[in-house]
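In the lab's daily routine, each protein ends up as an entry in a very long ledger. A line of letters takes care of the sequence, but it says nothing directly about the fold. The three-dimensional part falls to structure tokens, numbers that each stand for a local backbone shape. The outcome of that step, for a single protein, is printed below.
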Amino acid sequence: MRTIVFAGALALLGTLLGTRLAITFLVRKGYGQLIRDDGPTSHHTKRGTPTMGGLVIIVAVVGAYAISHLLTWTAPSASAVLVLFLFAGLGVVGFLDDFLKIRNQRSLGLRSKAKLLGQSLVAITFAILSLQFPDERGITPASNAISFLRDIDFLQLPVVLVIIWVMLLIAAASNGVNLTDGLDGLASGACVMIFGAYTLVNIWQFNQSCASVASAGPKCYEVRDPYDLAVVAIALAGACFGFLWWNAEPAKIFMGDTGSLSLGGALAGLAIFTRTELLLVILGGLLVIEVASVILQVGFFKATKGRRLFKMSPLHHHFELLGWQQVTIVMRFWIVAGLFVAAGLGIFYAEWVAGT
């Protein structure tokens, strides 16, 4: 448990203190956010606010994980290293996108094909490696089955389909955080709750692991490295919490695609390795709503030849154009995110209770 505590505390301090230094550096370099002209006019005041704050989150999480293991003199696990690889790898793609936006002084960074290629290469590498590294029981970080609260036995997939499924999960989660990151503190606050939930899920799975003969029950969990995944999850929650100090309205810095793509990737990685892939739809319900609002808007626009279902998508912009204050939208969306997280944890625990 000491490793978990150290990781969370170090990651929180890393972003709480490191973001202040990053703001100073980015302002000096003139690395400010570019604002779309077709967005809400209230966002124009944010033009020039430092972006790429996700770099601080990435450094804080990876640093906290490494230092916490050094302090407790414990070895890293394959599962945790792979989640961090996915987290940092998508962060690199997001950083290139952010940097090109700033250098070219336009709201578009990487071309869509280049961005998709970068995300796909990271996701495919992660998927292939996730099916390697079996432990002494033969359990690999990922499995061939689609999962909800644990693997669904009759939904076993061949390797090629597993890779495609993993790519879809990563794309959905990373784009979900990316679309949600449109108001000060909205995405970072929601991520604190979801990563906090995965910390609890991993601790519970560790305590009820099939690897522990003493506590193994009829509904034990066949998950590789649940304790070390809890270390990663709490580091992510702590880093987002510390970053929120500077990202809350009025934001002094934005995480950019560097942060949103990497955090979304980490969510997908944790869902895959904890065998809770479909549960992420509930835990990340706010992200699902934001993505769904964009899909519905585009579909309705095409079906009705120009009419709009919402004033603007993602959904938080619709409420902005209705006249809601940003802080009101963020607080209410956080409440919605918290309700989804509570529902997801309740379902996770209820399944275990019902099976014991």
Notes: Residues 2-281 form one domain. Residues 326-355 form the longest helix (30 residues).
